[in-house]
Amino acid sequence: MVLPHDSFPLPEGVTGASVWVDRVGERSLVGRNQRGVEIPIGSGEGQVNPGELLKIALLGCAGMSSDRTLARRLGEDFPMRLWAHDESDAEQDRYLRIGEEIQLPLEGLDEKEVAAVVKVFGRAVAAACTVERSIVPGVEVTHRILGAEGEPPAEEDAR
């Protein structure tokens, strides 16, 4: 376990789930976790800005939440890529909507199977994505499985 080792004392509430961010320059920070991961935060080259981190957190949570469920339908080593494109609203200085797009190997699946993948993805994210559940309903988060844009089937068809 890695913890900061500098002049700041550890806060009382530090747990295994705690993360921290250190300032390393003007509007330049480094986010860290206790497993030794470092994420450069800022708007410069090689840095991720906080809005991007929010979207990455949502995408990562959706991917992890749906992984096992999708593996049962698509195979253990299925590829997946998740995207988030929306920008913050300049007037309100907040995200009003974050649309996610998910790329999955849907080739070879029939319409019912694709609909079932869409449904189980949505259910898995709704049930297990702590990040999304923490920010919704404050910001609309949508999910779209690319290549599965048809009408959803009746409830009994997607089981």
Automatic annotation (TrEMBL):
Its EC number is 1.11.1.-. Keywords: Oxidoreductase, Peroxidase. Gene3D superfamilies: 3.30.300.20. GO terms for molecular function: peroxidase activity. The keyword DNA repair does not apply. It comes from the Bacteria. This is OsmC family protein. It comes from Brachybacterium rhamnosum. The lineage of its organism: Bacteria, Bacillati, Actinomycetota, Actinomycetes, Micrococcales.
